[in-house]
Automatic annotation (TrEMBL):
Its EC number is 3.6.4.13. It is an enzyme of class 3 (hydrolase). It comes from the Eukaryota. It catalyses: ATP + H2O = ADP + phosphate + H(+). Residues 48-151, 226-246 are annotated as: Disordered. Residues 79-88, 106-120, 134-151 have a biased composition (Basic and acidic residues). Keywords: ATP-binding, Helicase, Hydrolase, Nucleotide-binding, RNA-binding. Residues 505-662 form the Helicase C-terminal domain. This is RNA helicase. It comes from Echria macrotheca. PANTHER family: DEAD-BOX ATP-DEPENDENT RNA HELICASE 50. Residues 247-458 form the Helicase ATP-binding domain.
Amino acid sequence: MWKTATRDSVCLLCRSSSLVTAPGRTRVGLEEATGRGLWTVQQRWLATRRQTRPQPARMVLSDRVDRPRPPPSSSRGGDATRKPRNNNDRPAGPFAAMNRTVANVGRDRERSAGFVRTRDPIPTTGGRGASSDNNKKRGGGGDRKKRDDKSFKALNMQRSLATIGYGARASVKEKLALVESFEQFALLPVLKEAVAGEVLRGLVDVKPTPVQRLAIPALLGQDVAGRGGKPARRSREMAAAATEEGEEGKVERREFLLAAETGSGKTLAYLLPAINALKEAEASDEMAKEYQVRLDVEKRIRGDAPVSTWIETFEPHPNMARPRVIVLVPTAELVSQVYRVAKALSHAARFKVRRVSADMDPLVIRNKLYSPLGVDVVVATPHLLASMARSDPFILSRVTHLVIDEADSLLDRSFAPETTAIVDRAMPTLKQLVLCSATIPRRLDSYLVERFPNIERITTPNLHAIPRRVQLGVIDVSRDPYRNNKLLACADAIYSIGREAARHELPGDEIDVKRIMVFVNERETTQEVADYLVSKGIDAVALHRDTPEHRQSAMLASFTSSEPLRVPKEKELPSTVVRTRRLANTKVIVATDLASRGIDTLAVRHVVLYDVPHTSIDFIHRLGRAGRMGRRGKGVVLVGKGDRRDVVREVKESMFMGQALV
Ligand SMILES: Nc1ncnc2c1ncn2[C@@H]1O[C@H](COP(=O)(O)OP(=O)(O)OP(=O)(O)O)[C@@H](O)[C@H]1O
């Protein structure tokens, strides 16, 4: 043990002064006392000074000043030769990979720090990715590029997403800065009021999200700075071209691709401009105005009699079963979700919105659509609407705005025939076609190039990136204690979430319930996993395509509500009573991809990926159920025998870097 006073050191154990006067390489004192290598007094003094300059001169000299801090001795056996521990060097466990400050991907830190994507050299956010990309832009990234081709080999091999160029993303950021408020949009005042007072009621300081900042002005044909309703340049050019070609009678149609990350408010981004156009068209619709006059007269004649009692005998509205706006979505659950937003807007903006989905009685659908009061907006799944349009083609005869939400699903093989049939039928009157999605697969990209070469692409800078506020933990199921028992690993992960939540339990008689989504790849697995979780005392249900539609909605209801879910605390039982093991503070839904698309699961903070998703598209959508609209989220992926560890590692690294997946 050594005590130093400026340059002189004295051994406090043996009081030897030999070292103090030994200026050169003298193997005495400290080295002999500790047995740790050859050190000179001068070297030690310099090292100590470097470490301790702000400290007072009199202090105890550490004999480990040149080494990393020793680990706490008991747990690690005091091994002096052990490598330094960092954030990644944690004990194993379901959440060992969380809250890291360093991505646990490969040992080659240098390689990951210089990450540049092959065909997508665009940093979606700032940070390290940005600097390396800027470096590349300046011409300094040649070597790195080669390294990074290798580093994202697995994702590149199964590349499924279309890429967005650097220039596009950079220019988008400039545009975003120009818009700060809904007031800047050339929307009707009632719609602005409806946003704050109905759709986003309860939120303070409501600002448009990036996709809304970009899409609403573009779809309104407004100058992007929000200075008024000037038609966009492209629209003017198209109009001029049509006039030159003598096509004045032809409807001028604009097509948009609206692509933004999950949970970023795309629904409002496409609904607001469509409803705005609807209200403007209504103001100049003479037939509708005349009908309204006749209806008002009839109401006066009928006195107090409710409209519903006589409307069937009155003349039908010109819009009966002839909507102007149609929104297509893939599932009944999404129909209800988009319908709710449109309905909230309709309270202030006064229009009639109906929904068409398989969970509704056919008679109810018919009555709503063919109501004599008319219909302005229909939210539907393509199968039902296409079949209705086959029997009554006039249903699509007045459509001016058609939105295809979750476009990558709806233009995929299973939906494409019905979706394109609707597009084709609506085309003659269509003024705006909007395709909307959080992921643009390459096949959709090629389809758009071929089918809609003039489509205007609106993409946000973070497209295809999983937000950094969502953390991804990896559980290696092949290791102890799971030994390839994925079911056990899944239950353990859920118990860990429950236990963690219990630590922050509320005072009082209630407990806060965490809502967790577990995603599997195959429909058959959902029930198996749910049953196992139930057998372990977890409240779990299975949701897949064969689950009746009305049951699906009921199951998802508590996952989509942003309200906290509380249950009474279980009563203490006498110590003689053995209670069956139960995790009271979690609620789990085990689902296939069906529940990963578009569902606004605001309540979900935790997602467990029971199976490694087949593509990066599935990663984006499944993890996108957590961390919506600026919230934090956690994902856990169970990696077992035969799973693509390389893909998981690369997804995790991309997430850490804030980069777009490929
Ligand atoms: N400007 C805003 N400010 C705050 N919250 C908003 C805003 N716009 C929309 N939201 C809320 O954000 C949530 C997500 O919106 P939405 O469902 O439209 O996302 P999305 O982009 O369609 O997601 P996904 O890609 O998963 O379908 C909703 O609860 C919505 O009410």
